[in-house]
Protein backbone atom coordinates (compact mmCIF):
# COMPACT_ATOMS: atom_id res chain seq x y z
CA UNK A 1 0.00 0.00 0.00
CA UNK A 2 1.00 3.63 -0.42
CA UNK A 3 3.28 5.03 2.29
CA UNK A 4 2.18 8.29 3.93
CA UNK A 5 4.84 10.99 3.96
CA UNK A 6 4.00 11.80 7.58
CA UNK A 7 5.13 8.28 8.57
CA UNK A 8 8.39 8.64 6.69
CA UNK A 9 9.14 11.99 8.31
CA UNK A 10 8.25 10.50 11.69
CA UNK A 11 11.05 7.98 11.23
CA UNK A 12 8.89 4.88 10.81
CA UNK A 13 10.94 3.56 7.88
CA UNK A 14 14.56 2.40 7.92
CA UNK A 15 17.22 4.58 6.32
CA UNK A 16 19.55 3.34 3.57
CA UNK A 17 16.74 1.20 2.20
CA UNK A 18 14.56 1.63 -0.85
CA UNK A 19 11.26 3.47 -0.51
CA UNK A 20 8.51 4.65 -2.85
CA UNK A 21 6.60 7.87 -2.28
CA UNK A 22 3.54 9.27 -4.02
CA UNK A 23 2.49 12.89 -3.99
CA UNK A 24 2.37 16.30 -5.62
CA UNK A 25 5.20 18.70 -6.27
CA UNK A 26 5.15 21.71 -3.98
CA UNK A 27 8.29 23.24 -5.47
CA UNK A 28 11.18 22.24 -7.74
CA UNK A 29 14.59 23.82 -7.45
CA UNK A 30 17.50 22.98 -9.79
CA UNK A 31 21.12 23.38 -8.78
CA UNK A 32 23.82 24.44 -11.17
CA UNK A 33 25.45 21.07 -10.65
CA UNK A 34 22.52 19.36 -12.38
CA UNK A 35 20.52 18.16 -9.46
CA UNK A 36 16.82 18.87 -8.92
CA UNK A 37 15.32 19.18 -5.46
CA UNK A 38 11.68 18.18 -5.41
CA UNK A 39 9.51 19.06 -2.41
CA UNK A 40 6.72 16.48 -2.47
CA UNK A 41 3.63 16.53 -0.28
CA UNK A 42 0.66 14.19 0.04
CA UNK A 43 -1.55 15.99 2.57
CA UNK A 44 -0.76 13.59 5.40
CA UNK A 45 1.13 16.30 7.30
CA UNK A 46 2.16 19.91 6.85
CA UNK A 47 5.70 19.21 5.68
CA UNK A 48 6.81 18.04 2.29
CA UNK A 49 9.56 15.47 1.85
CA UNK A 50 12.53 16.31 -0.31
CA UNK A 51 13.47 14.03 -3.18
CA UNK A 52 16.82 14.64 -4.84
CA UNK A 53 16.84 13.85 -8.53
CA UNK A 54 20.28 13.78 -10.25
CA UNK A 55 20.61 14.58 -13.95
CA UNK A 56 21.81 11.08 -14.76
CA UNK A 57 18.25 9.78 -14.44
CA UNK A 58 17.16 8.51 -17.85
CA UNK A 59 14.16 10.82 -17.96
CA UNK A 60 15.78 13.84 -16.28
CA UNK A 61 15.50 16.13 -19.31
CA UNK A 62 12.19 14.80 -20.58
CA UNK A 63 10.29 14.49 -17.30
CA UNK A 64 12.01 15.85 -14.20
CA UNK A 65 12.64 19.26 -15.72
CA UNK A 66 8.95 19.48 -16.65
CA UNK A 67 7.78 19.07 -13.07
CA UNK A 68 6.08 22.17 -11.71
CA UNK A 69 3.99 22.95 -8.64
CA UNK A 70 0.94 20.66 -8.58
CA UNK A 71 2.34 17.88 -10.77
CA UNK A 72 1.80 14.33 -9.48
CA UNK A 73 4.73 11.92 -9.15
CA UNK A 74 5.81 8.54 -7.90
CA UNK A 75 9.41 8.50 -6.71
CA UNK A 76 11.48 5.46 -5.77
CA UNK A 77 14.88 5.80 -4.17
CA UNK A 78 16.93 5.41 -1.02
CA UNK A 79 15.70 6.95 2.21
CA UNK A 80 18.48 8.89 3.92
CA UNK A 81 18.88 11.13 6.95
CA UNK A 82 18.79 14.69 5.74
CA UNK A 83 21.73 16.97 6.36
CA UNK A 84 19.63 20.10 5.77
CA UNK A 85 18.24 21.92 8.77
CA UNK A 86 14.53 21.55 9.43
CA UNK A 87 14.41 18.36 7.38
CA UNK A 88 14.52 14.93 8.96
CA UNK A 89 14.66 12.54 6.03
CA UNK A 90 14.97 12.78 2.29
CA UNK A 91 14.95 10.46 -0.68
CA UNK A 92 17.82 9.99 -3.15
CA UNK A 93 15.71 9.37 -6.22
CA UNK A 94 16.54 6.50 -8.55
CA UNK A 95 13.28 6.61 -10.46
CA UNK A 96 10.93 9.51 -10.99
CA UNK A 97 7.67 8.57 -12.63
CA UNK A 98 5.38 11.35 -13.74
CA UNK A 99 1.76 10.53 -12.98
CA UNK A 100 0.29 13.83 -14.11
CA UNK A 101 1.90 17.05 -15.31
CA UNK A 102 0.33 20.46 -14.84
CA UNK A 103 -0.93 21.72 -18.13
CA UNK A 104 0.22 25.25 -18.76
CA UNK A 105 2.02 25.99 -15.46
CA UNK A 106 1.82 29.75 -16.12
CA UNK A 107 -1.92 29.74 -15.62
CA UNK A 108 -2.10 27.07 -12.91
CA UNK A 109 -4.32 28.78 -10.31
CA UNK A 110 -2.37 27.38 -7.35
CA UNK A 111 1.11 28.39 -8.51
CA UNK A 112 3.63 28.49 -5.66
CA UNK A 113 3.05 31.94 -4.20
CA UNK A 114 0.96 33.38 -1.44
CA UNK A 115 -2.67 33.77 -2.48
CA UNK A 116 -5.26 35.88 -0.74
CA UNK A 117 -7.82 34.03 1.31
CA UNK A 118 -10.59 35.56 -0.85
CA UNK A 119 -8.95 34.28 -4.03
CA UNK A 120 -8.66 30.78 -2.57
CA UNK A 121 -12.38 30.85 -1.71
CA UNK A 122 -13.13 31.21 -5.40
CA UNK A 123 -10.92 28.19 -6.15
CA UNK A 124 -12.58 25.84 -3.65
CA UNK A 125 -11.73 22.78 -5.77
CA UNK A 126 -7.99 23.53 -5.69
CA UNK A 127 -7.83 25.18 -2.26
CA UNK A 128 -7.05 21.93 -0.39
CA UNK A 129 -3.70 21.79 -2.23
CA UNK A 130 -2.43 24.91 -0.52
CA UNK A 131 -0.62 24.98 2.82
CA UNK A 132 -3.55 26.71 4.46
CA UNK A 133 -6.17 24.47 2.85
CA UNK A 134 -4.36 21.34 3.95
CA UNK A 135 -3.73 22.60 7.48
CA UNK A 136 -7.38 23.58 7.98
CA UNK A 137 -8.52 20.21 6.66
CA UNK A 138 -6.29 18.23 9.02
CA UNK A 139 -7.27 20.29 12.07
CA UNK A 140 -10.95 19.97 11.13
CA UNK A 141 -10.54 16.21 10.91
CA UNK A 142 -8.74 16.03 14.27
CA UNK A 143 -11.55 18.03 15.89
CA UNK A 144 -14.28 15.83 14.40
CA UNK A 145 -12.56 12.62 15.47
CA UNK A 146 -11.90 14.05 18.94
CA UNK A 147 -15.57 15.02 19.36
CA UNK A 148 -16.69 11.48 18.57
CA UNK A 149 -13.94 9.97 20.74
CA UNK A 150 -14.77 12.19 23.72
CA UNK A 151 -18.50 11.54 23.59
CA UNK A 152 -18.01 7.83 22.95
CA UNK A 153 -15.69 7.59 25.97
CA UNK A 154 -18.44 9.13 28.11
CA UNK A 155 -21.04 6.66 26.88
CA UNK A 156 -22.92 8.93 24.46
CA UNK A 157 -24.63 7.30 21.50
CA UNK A 158 -24.42 8.98 18.10
CA UNK A 159 -27.92 9.38 16.66
CA UNK A 160 -28.67 10.13 13.01
CA UNK A 161 -31.40 12.77 12.98
CA UNK A 162 -33.20 13.65 9.75
CA UNK A 163 -32.15 16.50 7.50
CA UNK A 164 -35.63 16.88 6.04
CA UNK A 165 -38.15 17.99 8.61
CA UNK A 166 -41.62 19.44 9.09
CA UNK A 167 -40.79 21.49 12.19
CA UNK A 168 -38.79 24.64 12.87
CA UNK A 169 -36.70 23.86 15.95
CA UNK A 170 -35.47 27.37 16.62
CA UNK A 171 -38.73 29.05 15.58
CA UNK A 172 -36.77 31.70 13.74
CA UNK A 173 -38.35 30.98 10.35
CA UNK A 174 -34.98 30.67 8.66
CA UNK A 175 -35.70 27.43 6.85
CA UNK A 176 -34.94 26.30 3.31
CA UNK A 177 -38.01 24.68 1.78
CA UNK A 178 -37.75 21.18 0.33
CA UNK A 179 -40.25 20.64 -2.43
CA UNK A 180 -40.79 18.74 -5.65
CA UNK A 181 -43.71 20.92 -6.74
CA UNK A 182 -43.61 22.44 -10.21
CA UNK A 183 -42.52 26.01 -9.46
CA UNK A 184 -43.99 27.31 -12.73
CA UNK A 185 -47.34 25.82 -11.97
CA UNK A 186 -47.87 25.58 -8.23
CA UNK A 187 -51.03 23.76 -7.11
CA UNK A 188 -53.31 26.06 -5.09
CA UNK A 189 -56.07 25.31 -2.61
CA UNK A 190 -59.43 27.12 -2.39
CA UNK A 191 -57.90 29.98 -0.42
CA UNK A 192 -55.35 30.47 -3.17
CA UNK A 193 -52.49 29.22 -1.01
CA UNK A 194 -49.92 26.72 -2.26
CA UNK A 195 -51.34 23.24 -1.65
CA UNK A 196 -48.54 21.34 0.03
CA UNK A 197 -50.81 18.29 0.37
CA UNK A 198 -49.79 17.68 -3.20
CA UNK A 199 -46.09 17.93 -2.43
CA UNK A 200 -43.77 14.93 -2.14
CA UNK A 201 -44.30 14.38 1.58
CA UNK A 202 -47.94 15.50 1.58
CA UNK A 203 -46.98 18.49 3.72
CA UNK A 204 -44.66 21.46 3.77
CA UNK A 205 -41.07 20.38 4.56
CA UNK A 206 -37.71 22.03 5.14
CA UNK A 207 -34.03 21.37 5.67
CA UNK A 208 -33.46 21.12 9.39
CA UNK A 209 -31.97 24.01 11.40
CA UNK A 210 -31.09 21.67 14.29
CA UNK A 211 -31.37 17.99 15.18
CA UNK A 212 -32.32 18.82 18.75
CA UNK A 213 -36.04 18.02 18.82
CA UNK A 214 -35.43 14.65 17.20
CA UNK A 215 -32.46 13.79 19.37
CA UNK A 216 -34.50 14.62 22.50
CA UNK A 217 -36.69 11.64 21.66
CA UNK A 218 -33.66 9.33 21.78
CA UNK A 219 -32.40 11.06 24.93
CA UNK A 220 -35.71 10.24 26.62
CA UNK A 221 -35.05 6.56 25.95
CA UNK A 222 -31.28 6.07 25.89
CA UNK A 223 -30.18 8.82 28.32
CA UNK A 224 -26.94 10.03 26.73
CA UNK A 225 -27.01 10.81 23.01
CA UNK A 226 -25.74 13.30 20.44
CA UNK A 227 -26.08 14.31 16.84
CA UNK A 228 -23.23 15.43 14.62
CA UNK A 229 -24.34 16.47 11.18
CA UNK A 230 -25.14 19.26 8.78
CA UNK A 231 -27.77 21.88 9.55
CA UNK A 232 -29.17 24.62 7.35
CA UNK A 233 -30.18 28.20 7.94
CA UNK A 234 -31.49 30.66 5.41
CA UNK A 235 -30.41 33.63 7.46
CA UNK A 236 -29.32 36.33 5.10
CA UNK A 237 -26.39 37.41 7.20
CA UNK A 238 -23.20 38.08 5.34
CA UNK A 239 -20.88 37.77 8.30
CA UNK A 240 -17.66 35.92 8.99
CA UNK A 241 -19.51 33.63 11.43
CA UNK A 242 -22.56 32.53 9.46
CA UNK A 243 -22.99 29.82 6.86
CA UNK A 244 -26.20 28.65 5.23
CA UNK A 245 -24.98 25.08 5.65
CA UNK A 246 -22.94 24.28 8.74
CA UNK A 247 -22.24 21.30 10.98
CA UNK A 248 -23.42 21.05 14.53
CA UNK A 249 -22.69 18.74 17.45
CA UNK A 250 -25.70 18.43 19.74
CA UNK A 251 -25.34 16.34 22.90
CA UNK A 252 -28.53 15.70 24.88
CA UNK A 253 -28.39 14.43 28.46
CA UNK A 254 -31.23 12.92 30.50
CA UNK A 255 -31.53 13.53 34.26
CA UNK A 256 -29.38 16.63 33.82
CA UNK A 257 -29.83 20.34 34.45
CA UNK A 258 -28.27 23.40 32.83
CA UNK A 259 -25.09 23.26 34.88
CA UNK A 260 -24.56 19.61 33.87
CA UNK A 261 -24.81 20.68 30.22
CA UNK A 262 -22.37 23.54 30.83
CA UNK A 263 -19.95 21.13 32.52
CA UNK A 264 -20.07 18.75 29.56
CA UNK A 265 -19.59 21.61 27.11
CA UNK A 266 -16.56 22.94 28.97
CA UNK A 267 -14.98 19.51 29.30
CA UNK A 268 -15.61 18.70 25.63
CA UNK A 269 -14.16 21.99 24.36
CA UNK A 270 -11.03 21.49 26.46
CA UNK A 271 -10.66 17.89 25.32
CA UNK A 272 -10.95 18.61 21.60
CA UNK A 273 -8.63 21.63 21.72
CA UNK A 274 -6.05 19.55 23.60
CA UNK A 275 -6.33 16.95 20.83
CA UNK A 276 -5.38 19.63 18.28
CA UNK A 277 -2.36 20.64 20.37
CA UNK A 278 -1.32 16.99 20.68
CA UNK A 279 -1.98 15.80 17.14
CA UNK A 280 -1.36 18.81 14.91
CA UNK A 281 1.66 20.75 16.22
CA UNK A 282 2.88 21.13 12.61
CA UNK A 283 -0.30 22.82 11.44
CA UNK A 284 -0.62 24.94 14.58
CA UNK A 285 2.91 26.23 14.13
CA UNK A 286 1.88 27.32 10.63
CA UNK A 287 -1.29 29.04 11.88
CA UNK A 288 0.67 30.77 14.60
CA UNK A 289 3.19 32.07 12.13
CA UNK A 290 0.87 32.97 9.29
CA UNK A 291 -2.64 33.51 10.63
CA UNK A 292 -2.85 34.33 14.33
CA UNK A 293 0.22 34.85 16.52
CA UNK A 294 -1.74 34.10 19.69
CA UNK A 295 -3.47 30.90 18.63
CA UNK A 296 -1.40 28.36 20.59
CA UNK A 297 -1.23 30.53 23.68
CA UNK A 298 -5.01 31.01 23.49
CA UNK A 299 -5.74 27.28 23.23
CA UNK A 300 -3.55 26.59 26.23
CA UNK A 301 -5.22 29.29 28.25
CA UNK A 302 -8.71 27.94 27.42
CA UNK A 303 -7.63 24.45 28.46
CA UNK A 304 -6.01 25.57 31.71
CA UNK A 305 -8.65 27.93 33.07
CA UNK A 306 -12.19 27.48 34.33
CA UNK A 307 -14.84 29.07 32.17
CA UNK A 308 -16.58 32.03 33.79
CA UNK A 309 -20.28 31.39 34.47
CA UNK A 310 -22.42 34.46 34.53
CA UNK A 311 -26.15 35.23 34.60
CA UNK A 312 -27.55 37.31 31.77
CA UNK A 313 -28.81 39.80 34.36
CA UNK A 314 -25.30 40.31 35.73
CA UNK A 315 -23.90 40.58 32.21
CA UNK A 316 -26.30 43.45 31.51
CA UNK A 317 -25.03 45.22 34.62
CA UNK A 318 -21.42 44.75 33.49
CA UNK A 319 -22.24 46.08 30.02
CA UNK A 320 -24.16 49.04 31.40
CA UNK A 321 -21.26 49.94 33.69
CA UNK A 322 -18.59 49.35 31.06
CA UNK A 323 -18.47 52.93 29.92
CA UNK A 324 -18.38 51.65 26.33
CA UNK A 325 -20.45 53.25 23.59
CA UNK A 326 -22.12 50.25 21.97
CA UNK A 327 -23.88 50.66 18.65
CA UNK A 328 -26.84 48.74 20.08
CA UNK A 329 -27.90 49.93 23.51
CA UNK A 330 -28.23 47.35 26.24
CA UNK A 331 -30.92 47.05 28.87
CA UNK A 332 -32.49 44.05 30.58
CA UNK A 333 -34.55 42.13 28.04
CA UNK A 334 -32.58 42.88 24.86
CA UNK A 335 -30.81 40.17 22.91
CA UNK A 336 -27.04 40.61 22.98
CA UNK A 337 -25.19 41.49 19.77
CA UNK A 338 -21.77 40.35 18.83
CA UNK A 339 -20.27 43.66 20.04
CA UNK A 340 -21.62 42.91 23.55
CA UNK A 341 -20.54 39.27 23.45
CA UNK A 342 -17.08 40.30 22.35
CA UNK A 343 -16.79 42.91 25.06
CA UNK A 344 -17.60 40.30 27.70
CA UNK A 345 -15.39 37.51 26.38
CA UNK A 346 -12.50 39.65 25.10
CA UNK A 347 -12.24 42.81 27.15
CA UNK A 348 -13.93 42.09 30.43
CA UNK A 349 -13.08 38.44 31.11
CA UNK A 350 -10.55 37.60 28.37
CA UNK A 351 -11.64 33.97 28.19
CA UNK A 352 -14.70 31.84 27.45
CA UNK A 353 -17.86 32.86 29.28
CA UNK A 354 -20.94 30.72 29.91
CA UNK A 355 -23.78 33.22 29.89
CA UNK A 356 -26.94 31.76 31.36
CA UNK A 357 -30.56 32.38 32.39
CA UNK A 358 -31.73 34.64 29.58
CA UNK A 359 -35.07 36.48 29.42
CA UNK A 360 -37.65 34.02 28.08
CA UNK A 361 -38.89 36.37 25.36
CA UNK A 362 -35.63 36.29 23.41
CA UNK A 363 -35.23 32.51 23.55
CA UNK A 364 -36.86 29.41 22.04
CA UNK A 365 -40.10 27.77 23.20
CA UNK A 366 -38.47 24.57 24.46
CA UNK A 367 -36.24 26.16 27.09
CA UNK A 368 -37.14 25.51 30.72
CA UNK A 369 -38.85 28.36 32.54
CA UNK A 370 -37.01 29.38 35.72
CA UNK A 371 -38.83 29.92 39.03
CA UNK A 372 -38.71 33.69 38.56
CA UNK A 373 -41.18 33.29 35.66
CA UNK A 374 -39.10 35.76 33.58
CA UNK A 375 -36.00 33.84 32.56
CA UNK A 376 -35.26 30.45 31.03
CA UNK A 377 -32.46 27.99 31.79
CA UNK A 378 -30.56 28.79 28.61
CA UNK A 379 -26.85 29.22 28.04
CA UNK A 380 -24.60 30.63 25.36
CA UNK A 381 -20.87 30.04 25.50
CA UNK A 382 -18.97 33.06 24.22
CA UNK A 383 -15.37 32.74 23.15
CA UNK A 384 -12.84 35.53 22.57
CA UNK A 385 -12.35 36.24 18.90
CA UNK A 386 -15.43 34.39 17.72
CA UNK A 387 -18.36 35.21 19.99
CA UNK A 388 -21.12 32.62 20.46
CA UNK A 389 -19.72 29.15 19.86
CA UNK A 390 -22.35 27.13 21.76
CA UNK A 391 -26.05 27.60 22.45
CA UNK A 392 -27.92 25.29 24.79
CA UNK A 393 -30.49 24.91 27.54
CA UNK A 394 -32.32 22.77 29.99
CA UNK A 395 -35.49 21.66 28.21
CA UNK A 396 -39.00 22.30 29.50
CA UNK A 397 -40.09 18.90 30.72
CA UNK A 398 -43.44 20.00 32.23
CA UNK A 399 -46.26 19.60 29.73
CA UNK A 400 -48.50 22.41 31.01
CA UNK A 401 -45.72 24.96 30.93
CA UNK A 402 -44.52 23.77 27.53
CA UNK A 403 -48.06 24.17 26.17
CA UNK A 404 -48.28 27.67 27.60
CA UNK A 405 -44.97 28.59 25.95
CA UNK A 406 -46.10 27.17 22.61
CA UNK A 407 -49.28 29.26 22.82
CA UNK A 408 -47.34 32.40 23.82
CA UNK A 409 -45.18 32.00 20.77
CA UNK A 410 -48.12 31.33 18.46
CA UNK A 411 -46.96 27.82 17.71
CA UNK A 412 -49.54 25.12 17.02
CA UNK A 413 -49.39 22.39 19.69
CA UNK A 414 -50.65 19.87 17.08
CA UNK A 415 -47.44 20.34 15.10
CA UNK A 416 -45.49 19.25 18.18
CA UNK A 417 -47.64 16.29 19.26
CA UNK A 418 -44.74 13.84 19.18
CA UNK A 419 -42.54 16.27 21.10
CA UNK A 420 -45.33 16.72 23.68
CA UNK A 421 -45.61 12.93 24.02
CA UNK A 422 -42.12 12.91 25.60
CA UNK A 423 -43.65 15.04 28.38
CA UNK A 424 -46.74 12.85 28.66
CA UNK A 425 -44.99 9.49 28.93
CA UNK A 426 -42.31 9.30 31.62
CA UNK A 427 -40.99 12.85 31.37
CA UNK A 428 -37.56 13.62 32.86
CA UNK A 429 -35.40 16.70 33.28
CA UNK A 430 -32.96 16.89 30.38
CA UNK A 431 -30.51 19.34 28.90
CA UNK A 432 -28.29 19.78 25.90
CA UNK A 433 -26.47 22.17 23.65
CA UNK A 434 -25.31 22.77 20.10
CA UNK A 435 -21.68 23.44 19.24
CA UNK A 436 -21.20 25.10 15.87
CA UNK A 437 -18.46 23.01 14.28
CA UNK A 438 -17.12 25.63 11.86
CA UNK A 439 -16.90 28.20 14.65
CA UNK A 440 -14.93 25.63 16.62
CA UNK A 441 -12.53 25.03 13.71
CA UNK A 442 -12.10 28.78 13.26
CA UNK A 443 -11.40 29.13 16.97
CA UNK A 444 -8.84 26.32 16.99
CA UNK A 445 -6.94 27.66 13.97
CA UNK A 446 -7.28 31.42 14.32
CA UNK A 447 -8.95 31.55 10.90
CA UNK A 448 -11.10 34.66 10.73
CA UNK A 449 -13.95 33.45 8.56
CA UNK A 450 -16.01 30.26 8.79
CA UNK A 451 -16.08 30.19 4.97
CA UNK A 452 -12.45 29.17 5.06
CA UNK A 453 -12.82 26.19 7.39
CA UNK A 454 -15.52 24.22 5.52
CA UNK A 455 -14.61 22.64 2.18
CA UNK A 456 -17.45 24.11 0.12
CA UNK A 457 -19.03 27.08 1.89
CA UNK A 458 -22.68 27.87 1.25
CA UNK A 459 -23.49 31.55 1.71
CA UNK A 460 -25.94 34.03 0.12
CA UNK A 461 -25.42 34.03 -3.66
CA UNK A 462 -22.79 31.35 -3.45
CA UNK A 463 -23.42 27.69 -4.06
CA UNK A 464 -20.73 27.05 -6.66
CA UNK A 465 -18.84 23.79 -6.73
O1 LIG B 1 -27.76 28.71 19.26
P1 LIG B 1 -28.28 27.77 18.22
O2 LIG B 1 -29.27 28.32 17.26
O3 LIG B 1 -28.89 26.54 19.05
C1 LIG B 1 -29.57 25.49 18.52
O4 LIG B 1 -29.74 25.26 17.36
C2 LIG B 1 -30.01 24.51 19.57
N1 LIG B 1 -31.09 23.69 18.99
C3 LIG B 1 -28.84 23.67 20.00
C4 LIG B 1 -29.19 22.69 21.07
O5 LIG B 1 -29.49 23.10 22.19
N2 LIG B 1 -29.16 21.41 20.76
O6 LIG B 1 -27.05 27.15 17.39
C5 LIG B 1 -26.03 26.46 18.04
C6 LIG B 1 -24.67 26.88 17.54
C7 LIG B 1 -24.34 28.35 17.72
O7 LIG B 1 -23.88 28.61 19.02
C8 LIG B 1 -23.27 28.56 16.67
O8 LIG B 1 -22.02 28.11 17.13
C9 LIG B 1 -23.73 27.64 15.57
O9 LIG B 1 -24.59 26.68 16.13
N3 LIG B 1 -24.44 28.36 14.49
C10 LIG B 1 -23.91 28.63 13.29
N4 LIG B 1 -22.71 28.37 12.75
C11 LIG B 1 -22.47 28.77 11.49
N5 LIG B 1 -23.38 29.39 10.72
C12 LIG B 1 -24.62 29.68 11.21
N6 LIG B 1 -25.53 30.28 10.42
C13 LIG B 1 -24.93 29.29 12.55
N7 LIG B 1 -26.02 29.39 13.34
C14 LIG B 1 -25.70 28.83 14.51
MG1 LIG C 1 -27.77 30.70 19.64
TrEMBL record:
Pfam family, one: tRNA-synt_2
Ranges for domain Aminoacyl-transfer RNA synthetases class-II family profile: 138-455
Uppermost EC category: ligase
Cellular component, GO annotation: cytoplasm
InterPro entries: Aa-tRNA-synt_II, aa-tRNA-synth_II, aa-tRNA-synth_II/BPL/LPL, Asn-tRNA-ligase, Asp/Asn-tRNA-synth_IIb, NA-bd_OB-fold, NA-bd_OB_tRNA
Stored SUPFAM superfamilies: Class II aaRS and biotin synthetases (SSF55681), Nucleic acid-binding proteins (SSF50249)
Keywords: Aminoacyl-tRNA synthetase, ATP-binding, Cytoplasm, Ligase, Nucleotide-binding, Protein biosynthesis
EC number: 6.1.1.22
Known catalytic reactions: tRNA(Asn) + L-asparagine + ATP = L-asparaginyl-tRNA(Asn) + AMP + diphosphate + H(+)
Protein name: Asparagine--tRNA ligase
Organism: Colwellia chukchiensis
UniProt lineage: Bacteria, Pseudomonadati, Pseudomonadota, Gammaproteobacteria, Alteromonadales
Name of encoding gene: asnS
Amino acid sequence: SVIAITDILAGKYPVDESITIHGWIRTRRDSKAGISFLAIHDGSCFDAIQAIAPNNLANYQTDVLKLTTGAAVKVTGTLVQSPGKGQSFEVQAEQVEVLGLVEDPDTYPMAAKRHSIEYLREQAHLRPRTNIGGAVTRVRNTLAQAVHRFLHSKGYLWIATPLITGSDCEGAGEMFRVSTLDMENLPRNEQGKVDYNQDFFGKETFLTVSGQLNVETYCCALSKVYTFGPTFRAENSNTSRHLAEFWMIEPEIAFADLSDAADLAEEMLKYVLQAVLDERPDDLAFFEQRVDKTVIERLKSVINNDFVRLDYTDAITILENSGKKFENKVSWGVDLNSEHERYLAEEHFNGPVVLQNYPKDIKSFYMRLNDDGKTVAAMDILAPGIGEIIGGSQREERLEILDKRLAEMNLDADDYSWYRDLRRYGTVPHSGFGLGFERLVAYATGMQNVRDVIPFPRTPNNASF
